[in-house]
Design a protein that fits this description.
With 79 residues, the chain is an alpha+beta fold. The chain has helices at 27-34, 51-60; strands spanning 2-10, 13-22, 41-46, 67-70. It starts with a strand and ends in a 9-residue tail after the last strand.
């Protein structure tokens, strides 16, 4: 299984708004979850089993000076 995170950028802050469990590489499921979204949505599939692990990975991939807020489940990633 994988975790698909969906969010938006607000200046230098990535706000995670949704989290969905999908089968690894299930592009049809991912497309369905992203369907109808207009604008500046961000999404990424992480090959992990838990939401918190996906958020931690997203946090670790940010550039210096960028921030992450988990609005979906409130997980606070660590450096």
């Amino acid at each position: 299984m994988s975790v698909l995170l969906i969010g938006r950028w607000d200046a230098e802050t990535l706000e995670i708004e949704e989290s969905h469990t999908v089968s690894d590489g299930d592009q049809e499921a991912i497309d369905a979850l992203l369907s109808g979204r207009a604008g500046d949505w961000w999404s990424c599939e992480y090959l992990v089993d838990r939401h918190r692990d996906a958020v931690q990975r997203a946090y670790e991939e940010l550039a210096p000076g960028e921030y992450l807020v988990d609005e979906a489940e409130g997980f606070d990633p660590t450096s």
